[in-house]
Amino acid sequence: MPKAQIPVLKENKPKRRASRRIIAILLLLFVAILVILFFRSPVSQVTEIQFTGGTFSSREQLLQASGLKAGTQYFGVSPSKVENQLLQIKSIQKAVVDKHFPGKINVTIQEYPTVAYELGAEGSLDAILANGTKVSVNSSGIAVEKPILTKWSASDPNKVELCKVLGTIPNELTSDISEIIPSPTASFPDRIKLYTRSRFIVITAISLLSDKVEYLNQVIETAQPGTITMLEADTYTPFQPSGGEDADQNATTHGN
């Protein structure tokens, strides 16, 4: 009789695919738990907010405008969004937000430069910035070489243009100007009158000031006090010597 063949029993192989899947799921759960714990921990939160370069805005104003607050999610802070929100403050020309992990945010503020000052209704001193914005100042923030704007209407568009022009002129060319008042005519609606610390009276126009200011300084450095007209033509007329006191008075009382 032929021998009966006994079938060979296959060995049970471990189910590798199933075990790998279980391991992957466990790893994902572990990572998810770590992420949850991380975002609930102080390490993921804003812990320090620092502003530098701001003079005219308080820390409270900057925090309110920026939307920054200690305890918020560090990774939820968008630098570009914060920068745009800070530009809503009219005195701010530029803002740069730098994030430093963990939890630190530095904000560098660049404000429009002060180009002049103006006396407020109650005698307080306000700074006029290069974009025409008026802001209150304290005694520590006053630049004495800047001119005073007087007799200007708050709604006068020439006032804003004057501030823009002053912002483009180097300080050393305007440091002698003590006061600027509007003096419009039909031919020159943006005509202005300037008074200098060296006792000159200057008549020019806002649209001409940046081109004429170098000539102004040349005359001031070489001539006796007088009236300088810088419009279509440049002229200089010294004060009459015989009018000594009257001439000095005319140069300092700033009459129209």
Notes on the protein architecture:
The protein has helices at 16-40, 59-66, 79-86, 157-168, 171-174, 206-222, 244-253, and strands at residues 48-52, 92-100, 104-111, 114-119, 125-129, 134-136, 148-149, 177-182, 191-196, 201-205, 226-230, 234-238. By secondary structure, the protein is α/β, with parallel strands linked by helices. A hairpin with an 8-residue loop joins strand 8 (177-182) and strand 9. The strands form 3 sheets. A 6-stranded mixed beta sheet has the order 7-8-9-10-11-12. A 3-stranded mixed beta sheet has the order 1-3-2, with helices on one face. Keywords: Cell cycle, Cell division, Cell membrane, Membrane, Transmembrane, Transmembrane helix. It is found in: Cell membrane; Membrane. Residues 44-112 form the POTRA domain.
Give the key terms.
alpha/beta; Ubiquitin-like (UB roll); Rossmann fold; 6-stranded mixed sheet; 7 helices; disordered C terminus; cell membrane; FtsQ_DivIB; transmembrane helix
Provide a brief overview of the structure.
With 256 residues, this protein is an alpha/beta fold. Helices cover 33% and strands 25% of the residues. It folds into two domains: 44-111, membrane protein fhac (Ubiquitin-like (UB roll)); 114-238, Rossmann fold, CATH 3.40.50.10960.
